[in-house]
Amino acid sequence: MQEEIVRHYASLAVPRYTSYPTAADFTPQVTPTHMSSWLRQLAPQEAVSLYLHIPYCRQLCHYCGCHAKVARRDDVIDNFVQDLLTEIHLVGQHLSSRPQVKHLHWGGGTPSILHAQQFEKIITALREHFDFAPQMEHAIELDPRTVTAELTKVLAAQGVNRASLGVQDVDPEVQKAIGRLQPLSIVKQAVDNLRGAGIERINFDLIYGLPLQTEETLRQTCQSVREFAPDRIAFYGYAHLPQRRANQRLIDNAALPDADARYAQAAVVRQCFTDFGYEEIGIDHFALTDDPLAVSAREGRLNRNFQGYTDDNCPTLIGFGPSSISQFWGGFAQNISDIKQYGIAVREGRLATLRGHIMRDRDRTRADVILALMCNFQADLNKLALGVDFSDEMALLRPLIADGIVTVRDGIVAMSRQRRQLIRPVAAIFDEFRRGNVHGFSFAV
Ligand SMILES: C[S@@+](CC[C@H](N)C(=O)[O-])C[C@H]1O[C@@H](n2cnc3c(N)ncnc32)[C@H](O)[C@@H]1O
Ligand code: SF4
């Protein structure tokens, strides 16, 4: 009976809540005019985070759900970098101050596709408009297959101090099934190169729920990962949406674990890393106990943004590059995803904003409740949403209370310890945009 219940909630299609509202609910209500006024309104010396989206890869992995395209020719990447530089200066012209950058994150795609002069030009352009804080966290997502000793020296020279390596899985059969051949020796070389260049903070990105994975193969993957002692591990559940992502149609549906197996796999991963001495951070994330992410989780300062769990508490994020999302107190603004259209916009001197969401007070209240649930597994409605009528939400929570997934006492909604993995369906109850619309999302676990 208990298993039936878990199966039901774990197989629901719900967002990951890296923002509220989620990007799926953005609309064309947000225009370059909004983006411009949000940039202009930033206070002098305000602390901000920056995100740079590099949308290219040398080849596409079957499982990939990111905004990424193949670039086989170098001139394609060169032209993109020109457009990115144009966008940085364009955004700079809309600022009325020099914000201080606390976090800078390169994502993609594969940022390591860039060469030394391209990195240098982009950083120089950013420094024209922003002050980099002395302790700025400068993080980059790297495909281990591209992490040469030369690249790590370039990154270290640019001040990069944290690297996320896409490891995914170390099992050769799983790697074949996901179109990502990457022997463990390559991961080892990448880690050695990073540490050799002085980039000591290392994250590993892995995925469960992939074709051919079993509890046993995952146990072995966890053992292999442990040898490298990464500071942080993100172990995502595979988001399989082949109707949206043509590359995922190369994945054999029949080889995918079902909802039960995924739930069991997530439990194996949790068990392994907690046994190895890692602290569990929210869902799907782990960190060494002295890592700043674990410290902020213990101190109740954990946050969640488009990169997942973070200790970054800047309320403002400015995104550059196609599909990137900016976040301001006033709302979210997402750039055009189409790389060509993005380039045309910035070359014509237009901000590349295409859509977003203007935050209303009621969105901010729900965002606070959802963030508290996702980060702390509980939300005190009397503190976060005093006076808000949540009677519909309470009615929707009733079956989950009866199933022992959640409790509600004195206005505090709290997940049961053993059922924390089911936080996404609980968060979705407080999502005004989700009522009767759960299409286009992946499994809750
Ligand atoms: C932008 S990608 C990684 C950077 C780099 N290109 C690489 O592949 O190593 C960020 C991470 O998202 C995760 N990811 C990508 N597609 C996913 C999917 N469909 N479901 C779950 N996680 C996914 C992978 O772990 C990947 O390493
Ligand atoms: S996982 Fe990384 S390398 Fe593979 S397609 Fe996605 S962004 Fe590119």
TrEMBL record:
Pathway: Porphyrin-containing compound metabolism; protoporphyrin-IX biosynthesis; protoporphyrinogen-IX from coproporphyrinogen-III (AdoMet route): step 1/1. Gene3D superfamilies: 1.10.10.920, tm_1862 like domain. It comes from the Bacteria. Its cofactor is [4Fe-4S] cluster. Its EC number is 1.3.98.3. Its main location: cytoplasm. Binds 1 [4Fe-4S] cluster. The cluster is coordinated with 3 cysteines and an exchangeable S-adenosyl-L-methionine. CDD domains: Radical_SAM. NCBIfam families: hemN. This is Coproporphyrinogen-III oxidase. It comes from Paenochrobactrum glaciei. The lineage of its organism: Bacteria, Pseudomonadati, Pseudomonadota, Alphaproteobacteria, Hyphomicrobiales.
